[in-house]
Amino acid sequence: MNATVRPVTDTNDPALIGIVPLFAAMHAEMAAQGMLLRLADGGALTWLDGVKGGLERFGRIAVAEADGGVIGFAHAAVKLAPEHLGGARTGHITHLYVAPARRRAGIARALAASLHGWLRDKEVASTELQVVRDNAAGLAFWRSVGYADELLQLRKF
Predict the structure, then answer these.
(1) All residues at 6 or more sequence positions from 5 whose CB lies less than 8 Å from its CB, including other chains
(2) What does the angle CA 87 – CA 91 – CA 93 come to, to the nearest 5 degrees?
(3) What is the pTM of this model?
(4) I want to staple 35 with a disulfide (CB 3.0 to 4.6 A). Which of 19, 30, 60, 139 is the partner?
(5) Alpha helices (H) along 2-59
(6) Which domain holds residue 84?
(7) For residues 120 and 118, what is the distance between their CA atoms, to the nearest angstrom?
(8) Residue 12 sits in a domain of what CATH number?
(9) Looking at the predicted structure, is the pLDDT value of residue 1 above 90?
(10) Dihedral-angle region of residue 14 (phi above 0 means left; psi in -120 to 50 means alpha; beta otherwise)
């Protein structure tokens, strides 16, 4: 892997703005893979502004950097399961994306490991995530790092 993976701990970190085009590219790929909801105009910045408020308290952003820029990112959050399911602290990996030209070099694994370590430190009981229906590579990746199929999400408009 010829990239550096690190957490973003400061809301003024210039790497954060480097996530914006990657976030938009990720959503374009997810649309092609079957995601029915579309990213709103300015949605990447809206998402980024929303997660910055809980940075390192309720959420972690990790970035992968190479050649002076951000080539991948990942985000996880801590939440509580509903009381009827025990109310345990749960991790949720909300996004993980690596630029296509940089894939298959261990960067996604390093980003996931950064999130898993942080979630372990936050003492979560389990971690969940979602993968778009036709993202075979994403499903294979997450299964390879220990995740098991649990739910199938359906949507009606």
Answers:
(1) 62, 63, 64, 65, 72, 107, 110, 111, 113, 114
(2) 145
(3) 0.95
(4) 30
(5) 15-32, 43-52
(6) 4-144
(7) 5
(8) 3.40.630.30
(9) no
(10) alpha
Question: Does any domain span residue 156?
Answer: no
What is the average pLDDT score of the chain? 96
Please say whether the dihedral angle defined by the alpha carbons of residues 156, 127, 32 and 51, taken in this order, is positive or negative: positive
The DSSP secondary-structure symbol of 141 reads H
36, 24 in Cβ contact below 8 A?
no
Main-chain phi, psi angles of 99, to 5 degrees:
-55, 135
Task: Say what the pLDDT of residue 128 is.
Answer: 97
Give the phi and the psi of residue 76 in degrees, each rounded to 5: -135, 155
CA distance 127 to 83: 17
Longest dimension (CA), the chain: 48
The answer to whether residue 23 is domain-embedded is yes
CB 8 within 8 Å of CB 114: no
DSSP state of 73: E
